[in-house]
Write a structure and sequence with these properties.
Elements: H1 4-54, H2 58-64
């Protein structure tokens, strides 16, 4: 027959083993999630940089930005010049 203290000791060991297994699984999963998040952030930054670089090209900007044709002629002020007024 198992004494009470022996039973408690076995339960404590079993609980400790479960917690350790849980923690191990948690660490593995969190490492995977962290890796996926890093990949997502770096991919997003690379895509953003690529998109901004592509928009520097007038041909790409004309094709990609539909509002570009609605912008009209840029306004230029003649600072320091007599405009006839």
């Amino acid at each position: 027959m198992i004494s009470r203290s022996e039973s408690r000791k076995r339960k404590a060991e079993a609980q400790e083993r479960d917690v350790t297994e849980y923690e191990t699984v948690f660490i593995e999963v969190s490492n995977r999630v962290e890796r996926l998040l890093r990949i997502a952030v770096w991919t997003g930054l690379a895509a953003l940089l690529l998109a901004q670089l592509l928009l520097l090209s007038p041909a790409v900007r004309k094709w990609a930005v539909k509002v570009e044709k609605l912008e009209g002629v840029p306004f230029e002020r003649n600072y320091g010049r007599n405009s006839g007024s």
